[in-house]
Amino acid sequence: MSLDTAALKPQERLASRLADDLEAVNAMIRARMASDHAPRIPEVTAHLIEAGGKRLRPMLTLAAARACGYAGPYHVHLAATVEFIHTATLLHDDVVDESRQRRGRPTANLLWDNKSSVLVGDYLFARSFQLMVETGNLRVLDILADASATIAEGEVLQLTAARNLATGEDTYIRIVRGKTAALFSAATRVGAVIAGAAPAVEAALFAYGDALGIAFQIADDLLDYAGTDAIGKNRGDDLREGKLTLPVIRAIARAEGTERAFWERTIARGQVTDGDVAEAHALMTRHGALESTGDTARDWAARAQATLEPVPPGDLRDMLSDLAGYVVSRIA
Amino acid sequence: MSLDTAALKPQERLASRLADDLEAVNAMIRARMASDHAPRIPEVTAHLIEAGGKRLRPMLTLAAARACGYAGPYHVHLAATVEFIHTATLLHDDVVDESRQRRGRPTANLLWDNKSSVLVGDYLFARSFQLMVETGNLRVLDILADASATIAEGEVLQLTAARNLATGEDTYIRIVRGKTAALFSAATRVGAVIAGAAPAVEAALFAYGDALGIAFQIADDLLDYAGTDAIGKNRGDDLREGKLTLPVIRAIARAEGTERAFWERTIARGQVTDGDVAEAHALMTRHGALESTGDTARDWAARAQATLEPVPPGDLRDMLSDLAGYVVSRIA
């Protein structure tokens, strides 16, 4: 590795290493998000897809396939598939969460309307389905169908768990698998499958994606309370939406009296005023909930790194390992 | 045919003829709409699936497969797949149309919320995808993936064509293919494919489903103006939603002066008051738009019947032919 690339973040090094593949993925995404008859579709999709997404999920598929020695064309289809599924879920999430900002820009539901976001999301999901069918590989179809069901089930579970103070860590992890880790683990696994990897390698890449996704989401949930405004997220969104994320669950577990009343007012009843995000942060700090949540994220990242052992050694495996370290470095 | 069954409607005779298959489909639907972790999912789905839907689309798949001599198990999976896709699109449609009633009952978006309808729809779409993967047949996956994209594209097109008085009959037919005929034609075609039917038979059953779906939707759109309240539809909904359906397009084509102003106020600007549905009906009658729309629906039904010629003769082919006559008998 040159000094130049050593200074880059792991996903930037992956993007550089996989530049040709990524360009093919981007070309396929542009070609397949078109619609001859409904110009609203590419408008909405382009707004989101070209808004500087990191292409993290497609890179996982490309890296897994290449790490397993794949030389065929279909890792590109699968990487585009994974990005389309991700984009479709973002469109629907923003409707469900009534979000106004995504990646530093107004959301599609705000710029157009909820209707367009719902239907264009459906279109992208159908397009992703066409792309994966083109691979002709029934095992990847099976994996991606199961991941789609896990994603949707996790989203419904998140919806019904919102504002419910009794939500426990098991339910939280199930929601996290649905909203994030299921697509990460499917992305890495289909890369292995299309490359014809041995079962142990496929299982390792699946477990890596799962642990990486959980580490990533826990870090994200922590940053919603502990982060700075510089990261472009709306701090305190989760409190306002009454989401039972890990730092909240752990703070509630130790809350009594007035603290309990605070969580009941904000999370359960949705009465959130100006100083409440700071107060939530203070309560979490008092009980070590932020620190222990960070520890849990780091545990999952370490698990992701450890699972990579059966994967053929090489620069791609190293970058995947570094990536797991990086997703939790944001909360260090 | 006995005197008893002769008195039944064609879809009732199909349901009677395919009773065992339909029972297997219903059992599969019940099993697959479950969710171990998110009870909201079966609640919402049961509300819609058990509300007395006619199971028309699954019957098309079963009838096509059986007419082609299929004796395997997978027509049941495909019929359940088709019903899940249909249910998912109904859930999303009701969000997009802000509907309050469906099949004579309050809609899911009204009983629960838009969020649940969006996410449970996504779940059912993922479940349909799992079901079709189980058939192990890449051609049916290809057909259903294409149909899914056509459906979503048609829905977006309908959204962007709403309130646009310049919408022509070509666009209308494209929308109708998306919202109705694409799933009808995929339903009949996958029945033929799973049965290993000859290409000419497969093409015939595809063309039948396409023409049947178009006839069905044109009749439905006509009934929104010409029907009685007894059919359980909210008369005039399409006017209030500014939908450019065939009778409206034909009435607008002949409108001048105050008539043109009427359509601009109601359809384009969405200002609909109490007497406007009756006034729309009067304008359509004056220009023969209702009658000519009925003729077009009957033409498509006749086309559906004519396309059945290559299908193996028998009671199922006869019932499919009768069904095409029946869908337009509602507007006689």
Report the largest inter-chain contact: A-B, 42 and 43 residues
Q: In which order are the strands of the major sheet of chain A placed?
A: 1-2
Q: Strand content of the residues of chain A, in percent? A: under 5%
Q: CATH first level of chain A: which class? A: Mainly Alpha
Mean pLDDT of chain A: 91
Please identify which CATH superfamily of chain A we are dealing with.
Farnesyl Diphosphate Synthase
Main features:
homodimer; 332 residues; mainly alpha; Farnesyl Diphosphate Synthase; two-stranded antiparallel sheet
Describe this structure in words.
2 copies of one chain form a homodimer. Chain A is mostly helical and 332 residues long. The first copy, chain A, has one domain (9-329): Farnesyl Diphosphate Synthase (Orthogonal Bundle). Helices cover 73% and strands 1% of the residues of chain A. Chain A contains 17 helices and 2 strands. In chain A, α3 crosses α6 (74-96). Chain A starts with a helix and ends with a helix. The mean pLDDT of chain A is 91. The interface between A and B is large, with 42 and 43 residues.
